[in-house]
Design brief:
- The protein has helices at 2-9, 44-47, 85-88, 194-225; strands at 12-14, 27-34, 49-60, 63-72, 77-82, 101-104, 112-114, 117-123, 126-139, 142-151, 157-167, 170-183.
- The protein is α+β, with helices and mostly antiparallel strands.
- The chain folds into two domains: 2-189, YmcC-like fold, CATH 2.40.360; 193-225.
- It has a nine-stranded antiparallel sheet with strand order 5-4-3-2-12-11-10-9-8.
- A hairpin with a 2-residue loop joins strand 9 and strand 10 (142-151).
- The longest helix has 32 residues, at 194-225.
Amino acid sequence: MVLAGLVVFMMLVPVGFAAIGIKEGDWGKYKIEVIPEEMEKYFEAIEEIEWIKVEAKSISDTTVTAEQTIHFKNGTEETKTIGDALASGFIIEADLGEGNEVTAEFSGPGTTKKINGTISRIYAGASRKVNYVEFTVAQYNTTSTMKVYWDKKTGIICEISTSFSEFMGQPVEMPLLYKMTDTNLWAASIWMQWWFWVIIVVIIIVAAGSVVLLLRRLSLSLLDSK
């Protein structure tokens, strides 16, 4: 039910399709987080998911067929075909900007939302310019504020951030985050890589040790000269 809800939330498609910014084989990998952790009991299906990968399998004119793989923490996987990745929200038009419209199908046929703006955020280890839409959804005794972010250059979805102010009729403050952690569309910046900082720390430690050793030797040399 929760996964179905996420798919509904993601159903934002472009108005007046212009350009597809990805190619066959391009993919994004995502993680879902519920904060605070004690609220995970309400999202048992999400709690069992380790990551989700969506990959474009075929592109024909304005139709993108994708494959979604859900990898669970127990090692099992579920794979399904997304017949229209545009309608699922996996991708919107490339190079959109503030004021451009996307269709919010879950809000009703023909309902549109305008892109609020373009900002820089970090996804999959790199700073990217992303378009975002912010809106409120109220249904099934649940009220949430959603922000959806797409990479400006490629149109691929980067994040869905949902903040619940009411859940199942009860007041609650609970963020739900669906965020890109990896992709083949861009390379992670070197200063965002964990191994880079390990090397830096090692260099600092070695350098500090060398300075201490040099000072000790200099001190001993001065004492001997006396």
